[in-house]
Amino acid sequence: MSSYMPTLKQLQYLAALKEHGHFGKAADACFVTQSTLSAGIRELESLIGVTLVERTRRVVRFTALGDRIVEKAHRVLREAEELAGIAQAAGKPLCGELRMSVIPTIAPFLLPQLLPRLRADKPELKLYLREETSHAAVESLRHGHVDCVLLALPYATGEVDSEILFADRLFVAFPKDDPRDPPAHIDPDMIDEARLLLLEDGHCLKDHALSACNRPELRAEATMMGTSLHTLVQMVDNGLGLTMLPEMAITGGILENTDIVARPLHADNAQRQIALVWRRNSPREKEFRMMAEILRDAAKAPKRIRGAVAG
């Protein structure tokens, strides 16, 4: 058995390099200089006597053994995080640091209601937020970069525990005075696929909307070009088409100062489930369920659905 044991810092450097594929970006993620990160990985390679990373001027390539060790490193780092979590959970709940990823179709609309409440009710909590797509957020959770994720289901999250917070209905948004404007709601067969604007790939809201409509031709014909819901709203307001928005965006005021009308989508499963998820068997499960209850209460703020029919 080798007398040398890699340090957590060295494993963290190696995992960051694998994730980012670039020494400079990995160093930034670890809040160290590039030379410090590179030296740490070289020391690790020297002490265990194997090459983990092949370095060239343009490419960082992991060896087969390097890939295996990175997988083990992720597990070790997660275990270390959970060890610290056990100690923290034994004290006062929702104190100290909590790292949470939030997807972009939730963050701008729910966080303004959540953060003031947390500052008032849990002043000892230091909440660090990352806004990233569902795939990136789930990967951050899996690798231990964050403690929990606020996202929309259904989505393939792997082995996690979760708590559903509330249902978020889907609306169809289009320019005011559209002659096809119905009085109450919009059926999927009323949507013109040639005018439908959706978020680009990587945003789960696109899949939720298309799944609710259950029209395969929409997936093939819809224009997927928006980088954010705010971008889509600006395009619709300029007469470029129509889009689908979650109810929380509308109640959050995304249609204010626009000439856009929104009507509920009338279809089976015309909603997404907002959920908080965390790693299975986490010692901080009690804290996450407390956070879920706070999030649930924050979402109950007065609603203001402008230009929409609640039907």
Automatic annotation (TrEMBL):
Keyword Transcription regulation: yes
CDD domains named among the record's database cross-references: PBP2_OxyR
Pfam families the record matches: HTH_1, LysR_substrate
Record Gene3D superfamilies: Periplasmic binding protein-like II, Winged helix-like DNA-binding domain superfamily/Winged helix DNA-binding domain
Superkingdom of the organism of origin: Bacteria
Keywords: DNA-binding, Transcription, Transcription regulation
HTH lysR-type domain sequence ranges: 6-63
Annotated GO CC locations: protein-DNA complex
Family annotation (PANTHER family): TRANSCRIPTIONAL DUAL REGULATOR HCAR-RELATED (PTHR30346), TRANSCRIPTIONAL REGULATOR OF OXIDATIVE STRESS OXYR (PTHR30346:SF10)
Family, per entry: Belongs to the LysR transcriptional regulatory family.
Name of the protein described by the UniProt record: Hydrogen peroxide-inducible genes activator
Lineage: Bacteria, Pseudomonadati, Pseudomonadota, Alphaproteobacteria, Sphingomonadales
